[in-house]
Specification:
12 strands; seven-stranded parallel sheet; Rossmann fold; five-stranded parallel sheet; 2 domains; about 400 residues; alpha/beta
Amino acid sequence: MSKVLLMSLGSRGDMEPFLAKGEELIEEGLEVAFCMPAQFENLAKEVSPSFYPMTPDFLALMDNPEVKKITGQIGSGWSRLKTILKLLRSTKHIQQQLIRDQKTADDAFKPDSIIYHIKCVYPVIAALRYKRKTALLSPVPCLLHPVDHEPAIGFGKPRSTWWNRMTYSIANYALINQAILGYGNPVLKEWKEKPLQKKELKCFLLDELPIEFAISKELFPRPKNWPQHVVVTQFRERNKTQGWNPSNELLTFLEKYPEPLYVGFGSMINGKPKEIGRMIIESCSELNQPVLINTSWGGIELGKDIPEHVFVISDIPYDWLFGKVKAVVHHGGSGTTHSALRFKKKQLIIPHIADQYLWNRLIHKAGYGPIGFPIKAFNKELFKNSLQKLLS
């Protein structure tokens, strides 16, 4: 039986496409194992009993005040850039431990192939030094190969074709020099292996590595200039309702207030969660709009006096919920964007970082909602006006 090791790093939204891919491979008769941050062990074992943990320190960084400064868009752009550079240096030991953990999983499971998230460094080492068959799976486009009309993730709004294409060269330089060479080569030295070289990395990443973008073709058609080994398929989503049942209180609320609004920011946080919670409730009250508010990781904080037309949740399967709501307000993660798209729901995206700005543009371009605004710009008037456009 062929064995596949699925390796992902990040928040839960980065895990789900790999769990869904794992389910597909198991149905095809393959043996599957997961290598993920230790916090996701129970989640991964819903799909396969074979699990290899990465250090929990990476995900614990989400509680670091400096990381919250970046994800919450707190402070000036220059101050956030300085914080990122500082974190790249101070977290080097965590990044290198992740590489060691990934190799431990590879050595223990002995897979025939590895499917990995771009945040994982070891699979590149495995391909180039241990001749392991590898492939990249991503729920986000605009990573390695240039797109004329969109810059690489993290480079802001689209500009001229020349600039858009240039951003990929800059992003690839950073990936190769900082992440792979900077973190990977010292670990290779520990293992007494030949260090990786810039030229072989560039050739591998751009000309050899099979890449699957598991995203909606409706939102992002495959660019014609991409090489044949780079494909766009479809977004993968597990059936998360298995073993889950809604509370009687939630069912009663939905019966009394059919088709409420949904608002949630997933794992994102911001600099004023209490103010934002208050403004969301006030805006919905003034528009006579019932709302389900997902407080999740703390990006929205609510007081004790919750109006009757507001229902608070913290964790719920979107494939159960989104068929029952009127529209979806969210941070713009790939998973939430595609879950709402699956049910053809209108969306208002309030992006925080990275690819969320891209999904904001793509959802608006496809006619699924008004253009959103950054979390840093959140105020009651702007939110209420955007909500009126969404609901109309």
